[in-house]
Write the structure tokens for this entry.
Amino acid sequence: MKLVFASVIISFFLDSILTSLIPIDSILLPLFSLISLIIIYPYFHKEENSYLIFSFLLGLVYDIVYTDTIFLNAFIFLLISFCIKLINEYISNNVFNVSIMSLLVVTIYRIITYFVLVIINYLKYDFNDLLVSIYSSLILNVFYGILLYLITDFISKKYKIDKIE
């Protein structure tokens, strides 16, 4: 479990660091905390309900620290974690599938967040804004997902940490 917490904490703080260093109109918008949910799922293979609770709490902390919304990201992180759980039942855990899941997760997160903000009248509907928010998040987050997977996979093999393969 130390590897899980270390991955999430590092991802959480990297979100903050990169957000402050990278301009808001850049094509490199980090969602590392969200990507960490993909990476840590295999370590919860015997405790899937704990994984869902953990993702909800991570989303809640993400809301409190990074956004002005309470429970929005908590529920979105929970929904995405449920999707990660379902996807992992059908595919194996490897670097290629992690990159595909990173693409899916970032896209789903951006779509859900965008439409919720449009529904509550926080944003005006503009399909181009949605597309920009999606593609501006993909490059960096997929790269981070691959990198974090390779690091955690190496550590889990070296120290014989049990996970789903």
